[in-house]
Amino acid sequence: MHAKRSLAMAAGLMMPALVFGTGPEAFEAAAMEAVMLSGLQVQDRQRRAERGAVPALSIQGLASDPWYGYSPEQPIAVGTTALPRAYLEQLRGTEGEPLEFRRAGDCAAADADIDCYEVTYRGLGDSVTLFLDLSRADAVYAPLGFTYID
Angle at CA 87, nearest 5°, toward 85 and 90? Predict the structure, then answer.
């Protein structure tokens, strides 16, 4: 059982494998179970993220496209209604200032669920509008004019 528990832990699982026995069949069953439990763990992480229990995304760097996040045609793809706040709380002003933001509403988009957020920080002047795509998940970046925290 110890070898199967190690296999499950090596696969990134928080619980040991439930398969008992020895030999190649038991090892294969434990490997298949590890894959299945790994998928369940991803689903569980998404559910916990939606409840705010875990950080769900990480900003990958600064965007190189000047329109990234500033237009509904190039929104920030956060992928779910639970993540805009987590994303915006990681953004900072150019000198590390915390943001103030509010949801300004839904934005018309033919094939996407896009929310608009009015965002500002001390020293910015006028607020800017950022567009967040709730229907598509992808790597997220900080738009030009912002920095971020890890």
Answer: 105
